[in-house]
Amino acid sequence: MAVVSTDAAERLGIRAHSDGPAASPSRIPVQSRAERFSSFEHDDFPEVTGFEAEWKLTPVDRIRSLIDGELDGSPYPIRYPEVEGASVEWLPRSDARVGSAGAPEERASANAWTSFEHALHIGIDGAIETAMTVTRGELGDTPRAAHTIVTAAPNSRGLVVLDSQGGAALSENVEIVLGEGAQLTVVSLQEWDGSALHLASHFARVGRNARLRHFVVSLGGSVVRVNPSAHLAEEGAEAELFGVYFADAGQHLEQRVFVHHDAPHSRSRVTYKGALNGDGARTVWVGDVLIAPSAPGTDSYEQNRNLVLSEGTRADSIPNLEIETGDIVGAGHASATGRFDDEQLFYLQSRGITEDEARRLVVLGFLSEIVQKIGEPALEARLLSALEDELGAVR
Amino acid sequence: MSTLKIAGLKVSIETDQGTKHILKGVDLTINEGEVHAVMGPNGSGKSTLAYTIAGHPRYKVEGGSITLDGEDVLAMSVDARARAGLFLAMQYPVEIPGVTVSNFLRTAKTSIDGAAPAIRGWATTVRDSMKNLRMDAEFATRNVNEGFSGGEKKRHEILQLELLKPKFAVLDETDSGLDVDALKIVSEGVNRAHGTTGLGILLITHYTRILRYIKPDFVHVFVDGRVAEEGGPELADRLEDEGYDRFLVDGVTDTPEPAGAQA
After folding, report:
1. Residues on B contacting A at a C-beta cutoff of 8 Å
2. Were B201 and a residue from A310, B35, B179, B184 both cysteine, which residue would form a disulfide, CB within 3.0 to 4.6 Å?
3. Inter-chain contact B160–A351, Cβ cutoff 8 Å?
4. Are residues A67 and A38 located together in one domain of the fold?
5. Does position A180 have pLDDT exceeding 90, yes or no?
6. B200-205 and B35-39 as β-strands: parallel, antiparallel, unpaired?
7. Which residue of B76, B101, B111, B143 to mutate against A (max A Cβ within 10 Å)?
């Protein structure tokens, strides 16, 4: 099935490549993800040309308004249920929790940071039994900035769903902070209308022996770029980052994942799976993993799989692994992009299942592997049904 | 009375070294309820015969025919063959990530029967069949063939055989990789299907071991893409003692016309 396939456990001490921008006289090229520039100020970043490593795979002309335009940073309508042990509130910019998990590394993210007026705070204080689903469906078409902070108190447990629907032109930052021993699942669900533009940077800081499970589910929207990063900041921190996406004709779905191992005995798994169908369907996955000298005993693996369902699509899949300590348990990456596995189709058809039905089963199975891991049956069922709808167009 | 008839079948595959002719004129007729063992050394074309009957696109039919009760099997798509009553238990069943056994079995049964099975009756039937094959109930929630042991894969194939109730089943080296206990369990499943539905069986094997548990009515020895010798169960006993050597000497160096088709 694989058209392109790399599958290598990086040997100890061998440093993987990293694709920084071309050298220019005025600037030292970025050699390591650790050295990437960050700032809260939009104007600290140079103009975006579209040739930068950060932007070269993104249709920047379609999102200029988010990179450089004026953004409405006022609070917007949200819906959420009452959940015991969880709270939802708007915070002023001056709140100490703002900026506690990360800082923008590119201009659109900084534009959002400069522009937001209040931050939406979702706090998990105990062990919540039901999902805290915060839905925003009335953002409108005016370019907007948003800022969200999800905090999980020490030893808390919970599932937070950030569900985005309707139309939007949105640039936003999401901070996720896990206290010691917290176990938090965050699902970022992009169910936008077909014309929506959405750029998001997620910054997670994972504390001692805490465990983050993070899902990016991108189905709707015109250009959707969600870049999650996880800073494994204290001993025993763990992050599992999952993604599932389905790009239709003309749709651009991008995710740039960054895992920063920065403490001993931290563990990460990154698994993103996508399908592409229709002319101009486009996906980008970049997976950066940095294992710092401060992170002996790291255990890390990242992979991306793409299933190409028609002609006229393009999937970019770029894993980057930087290892700066020799004392690790494991570090590996894998990437494969290809068409249907003919042997899978043959097996199903040999049981009487028609070719169309077999294709549907294979794709749905391929993507549902990620959905099955969310651990919230009602949401899983809803997402599987949404994926089945996407597959209605596949023949 | 159903009949699966293979006549003058010639099959080739494309390889990096060019076209390779594998089956060079195979004649074989299986009637309802009969058990035929096809035996032969590695590379003699046994699995090619199995996959050609099932319709795998890799195998190109150069000549001859396969008919099921007079219908042209070669003109049917892979799924149409299954719906017509043919089943292939594969030597290397394929993993289907994200598709549970339970979902797969229900989808296959619905496709074969043309209508969804009654929910309650079906659940009971599946559970009983799994129990007979000593499969844990949890098995139904796993993804098809994913992480299955060799024995579990073969049991899963025979589970499908029992549930889908085909007219004819081709068992492609179902005995390979099984220990004695698993071999007995799998053989019992095949014999149950044979006893309850009048299944016709084409049992492909390299070894005589499985024939202790599944008794063949006819034995065909495959050498170099042809049936080199045919007979009753006693032929298997002779192979047990002598191996395939005499066929490799007699059969390959200068290929005489193989024994004629048997009824």
Report:
1. 54-57, 77-79, 81-83, 87-88, 90, 93-99, 103-104, 107-108, 111-112, 143, 160, 164
2. B35
3. yes
4. yes
5. yes
6. parallel
7. B111
Last residue of a domain, one of A339, A370, A387: A339
Domains and CATH numbers, chain B: 3-93+165-253 (3.40.50.300)
Which residues from B are below 8 Å from A372, CB to CB?
98
pLDDT at B247: 80
Q: What is the pLDDT of residues B197-231, one digit of tens each?
A: 999 999 999 888 999 999 999 999 999 999 999 99
What DSSP element (H or E) covers A350? Answer: none
- Segment B173-183 shows an average pLDDT of 92
Range of the domain at A368: 342-395
Query: What residue type is A348 in one-letter code?
Result: L
User: Do both A65 and A95 map to the same domain?
Assistant: yes
Give A352's contacts in chain B (Cβ within 8 Å): 79, 82-83, 108, 111-112, 164
The beta-carbon neighbor of B111 closest among A346, A353, A364 is A353
In contact, B197 and B33? CB cutoff 8 Å: no
Q: How far apart are CA A372 and CA B74, in angstroms?
A: 40
Instruction: Pull the structure tokens for residue A40.
Output: 């809260």
Same domain, A89 and A180: yes
Assess whether A290 and A304 both reside in one domain: yes
Cβ neighbors of B135 (< 8 A, separation 6 or more) are B152, B155, B156, B159
Instruction: Tell whether A291 and A353 lie within a shared domain.
Output: no
CB A323 within 8 A of CB A295: no
C-alpha to C-alpha distance for A207 and A233, rounded to whole angstroms? 6
Q: Which residues of B touch A342 (CB under 8 A)?
A: 57
Q: Give the number of domains in chain A.
A: 2
pLDDT digits (tens, 9 = 90+) for B12-57: 999 999 999 999 999 999 999 999 999 998 889 999 999 999 999 9
Question: Domain end: A309, A324, A339, which one?
Answer: A339
Angle formed by the axes of helices A355-371 and A342-349, nearest 10°: 120
CA separation for the pair B260, A289 (Å, rounded): 66
State residue A30's pLDDT score. 59
Distance of CA A135 to CAs A79, A213, A357, Å? 5, 19, 33
pLDDT averaged over chain A? 91
H/E segment holding residue A342: helix A342-349
Nearest CA in chain B to A354: B79
Q: Are residues A296 and A204 in the same domain?
A: yes
Structure tokens at B162: 């029992």
Q: What is the mean pLDDT of residues A269-275?
A: 97
A319 and A371, same domain (yes or no): no
B111 closest CB neighbour out of A342, A352, A372 = A352
